[in-house]
Structures are given as C-alpha cells and as structure tokens.
Amino acid sequence: MSASLARIVGLDVARAIALLGMFASHVGNEHPPDGWPWLEVFHGRSAAIFAVLAGVSMALMLTRRAARDYAAAATASPAPADRAGRPEAHASDREALRHTRIRIAVRASLLIPLGWVLSALGTPVDVILDNLGVMMLLALVGLGLPARVLGAAGVLVLVAGTAVVDGLRVIVPAWLADAPVVHELWSQHYPALSWLGHVLIGMAIGTWRPWRGWRLAALGIGGAVVGAGMWLGGRLTGGDPAWTEVEPHSYTPVEMLSNTGVAAAVVAACLAAAALSRRTLWPLAAAGSMTLTLYAAHIVVIAIVGDALVWRSTNTAMLVLCAAAVAFASAWRALLGQGPLERVVSWASSRAADADARRRIGPPDATMSA
C-alpha cells in the first residue's frame, strides 16, 4: 500500500474509533452489574479524538493539492504576476490558503445549523457538531502556521481555556451569553474557547506530517506518555476541581491534555496499523469516511426509538448500533463512494471556494484562449 493511501485509511480508522466511542458513551452502559465498566474509557476521550482529527483534516486540506484545486477552479486564467509583470512565486500559495479557508469556513458553517437541528430532536445526547463548527472557524486563524506554533498555541489554550471560559460566563450579559453561535464559545459542554486547543493540536499533527518512521513513533509514544501521565497525575493529586480533576468532561487542563495525548496515540496506532493491513481495516475505514452521516444518523435513531435507548441496562443496543453503522458504511462506500452528508458538505464548500477563485482572477484573457 502506498504511503498516502495508508495515511487516508489510518485516519479514517481513527475517525471510526472516535465515532464508535461516542456511540458507546451515548448508548452503552458501564455500570454494574449488567454494564461493562471498561466502556468508561470512551467518555470524554472519543469527543476529544473527534476534535483532534478535525484539526488534522484542516491541515491536510492545505497542501499542494489545494494549489491544484485553486488552479483548476481558475482554469485558463493567467498566472498571478507581480508589479513588474513577472509570475509571482508565492501568489498561488496565498490564493491556495484563501481557497482552503473558504472551504473550511463553509464546512464549519454547515455543521453549526446541523448541530442545532440534531439538538432540537430532544435526545439526552449533548451534540458536538455546532460547537465543533465554531472551533473550526476559530482555528482558521492558525491555518498555514508552522507545526510548533500550532502545538504551542494548542497547549496554551488547553491549559488556560477553561479559566477563560469560566471568567467570561461571569461577566458576559445573559442576552449575549445565550445568543446563537456565541453561546457555543462557553457552553456547558464542549465550550469552543477551550476545546479549540484540541483542534489546534490536530492541525499541528497534520502540519508536522508524522505518517511513518520516527515521527510516527514519536507521536504514538509521546501521546501515550502524556495521556497516561496526566491521568495518573490527576488521580494521585486528588483531583483539584479547577486544575487536575480527570473525570470525563471535567474540562480541567489535566483532563484535556490527557485526552489530547490519548488522541495522538490513537492516531499513531491507526496509522501504523493501516500501513500493515488495509484490507482487514476496510470496514472501519468505511465508517470513518462518513462519520458526519453516521453521527447524525445515530442521533436520529435515538430520537425515534426514545430515551430508553440511552438508559438501557444492557449493551445489546450499543452493539447493534455499532454493527449497523459499520455495515451500512461498508455497503455505501462500496457502491456509492462518499457518504451522503459528506457529499453535500464537500460539494457546497468546493463550489463556494471555486466561485471565489474565478471571481478574483476574472475571466480568461481572450487572446490567450484564441
């Protein structure tokens, strides 16, 4: 398998693990006597993996392919030039950055109302999509920055973000605090101002490109050390509610750094596994390629079946839901390719970015096309 194909499969498998982990968090039962206590490992961590992978995807969208996409959108137009009329070497890079930002902004803007619609179904699930959309919009500022800058910024946000959110909740007036989109910045679950750190770390990973070799090993080992070390440190210090508590969704710096480390380790493990066996992982990769569709579908299923699906004493429903998601994704991927919601989002974002590219460059020179 080529390195690029292994990367795609590995990241899709990581997305599938995050998705199925959220299924387990929402529908699974970890409480004795009928539950499985080990399912608790998915609480908080699955959503963090989801956010980190969103950042990885954002970074990967800004590649040489972005420049080719931009060039294709502006087909037959002359290359940008400087004041002296010479081709401008970095103009295509700047335009590719703009092209990618528009694509990401449109995708994020579509996630926000979709999250609102799913939340309006009234399930007990705290939907992450609208918050994730806001995180992605905030993270656009960092697109194109070096990996070390993105990593440092991500750690800073993870450490200080919750304190900032708590402070803003006190001083921001109620009419603004509950306003659409703004509310997602400091909402009780997945506050974008602190969870932005996960996305920035993901962007750092995608920019660093640790797909194989020593970088892949460093990502996996480093992530595991941070994830386990932070969790153990929080346990040993007694779990200060403001800083070192590691209970799921406590949003302390230690819990968020631990979850980010786990996410990095999971990504590394999936990349390594994909390099060894693509065929075995194909069903999971298929599910990971359409996580938006499957995430939305599982919320709809919970809304239709009722809240009892979430509070069942056994894990039969969770297993059925996970198996159905993987089976559906495998069949759809084999027959139709890209997932339904993914296709809509991809079409809308590419269309908007391509239209902007054509508008900025203008119509082709008639003499050049003659």
Multimeric state: single chain
* Fraction of residues in β-strands: under 5%
Measured as a percent range, the helix fraction is over 70%
Number of beta strands: 0
Rg estimate, integer Å: 21 Å
Tally of helical segments: 15
Sheet of most strands: none
Content-based structural category: mainly alpha
SSE ordering: HHHHHHHHHHHHHHH
Tally of structural domains: 1
Low-confidence stretches: 76-90, 366-370
Mean pLDDT across the residues is 89
Shape: globular
Q: N-to-C terminal Cα separation, in Å?
A: 44 Å
Overview of the structural elements:
With 370 residues, the protein is mainly α. It has one domain (3-81, 90-359). It is built from 15 helices and no strands. The longest helix has 30 residues, at 91-120. The model is unreliable at 76-90 and 366-370 (pLDDT under 50).
Set out the fold topology.
Elements: H1 3-27, H2 45-61, H3 64-73, H4 91-120, H5 129-139, H6 147-171, H7 174-177, H8 192-208, H9 213-236, H10 253-276, H11 278-288, H12 291-305, H13 316-336, H14 340-361, H15 366-369
